[in-house]
Amino acid sequence: MVAVDPAHMENWLTMPFTIRPLVAYDRPRWEPLWQGYLRFYESDVPADVTNLTWTRILDPEAPILGLCAATPENDLLGIVHFLFHPVTWAAGPRCYLEDLFTSPEARSQGVGRALIEAVYAAADARGADQVYWLTQDFNATARRLYDQVAKVTPFIKYRR
To answer: What is residue 126's three-state secondary structure?
Structure first.
């Protein structure tokens, strides 16, 4: 589905892993990462929504896509969920990177960057003119990476 150029990765890759789509047998390893992500953002998602999210990720007809960083032993080091949607300001779609999380032991090992690069590759393949995401202002560790791979925007989020 998505390829990350190994020649480009060698500058920051420090542990062996591959980026690949999430598959059904990943559920027991995906869920702790998903729950870790929710805990980090001090959020709680009901079990039925977690189940629905997993079902959507696996459904080739659903708009949510999921990738993981997996070791040769199929341990998951990180996950990313993203989706494409049409916009009024461009002919092609935009890509929203909704969730990105790496296990604590995999941080600063190139996992987050590789997952973002894989989403970039998927966006390029789909003709998306933009990949965007949100993070909390207190997420300083992730923001150091984000500042290297993207540009912060001046937009402020409002919600009902």
So the answer is: helix
- Dihedral angle at the C-alpha atoms of 29, 98, 113, 39, nearest 10 degrees? -50
Q: Per the CATH hierarchy, to which homologous superfamily does domain 6-149 belong?
A: Gcn5-related N-acetyltransferase (GNAT) (3.40.630.30)
The residue extents of the domains of the chain are 6-149
Burial of 30 (0-12, 13-18, 19+ CB in 10 A): buried
CB within 8 A of 31, min separation 6: which ones?
A: 50, 54
pTM here is 0.88
Q: How confident is the model at residue 137 (pLDDT cuts 50, 70, 90)?
A: confident
Cα end-to-end span (Å), the chain: 36
Query: What span, in angstroms and rounded, lies between the C-alpha atoms of 41 and 148?
Result: 22
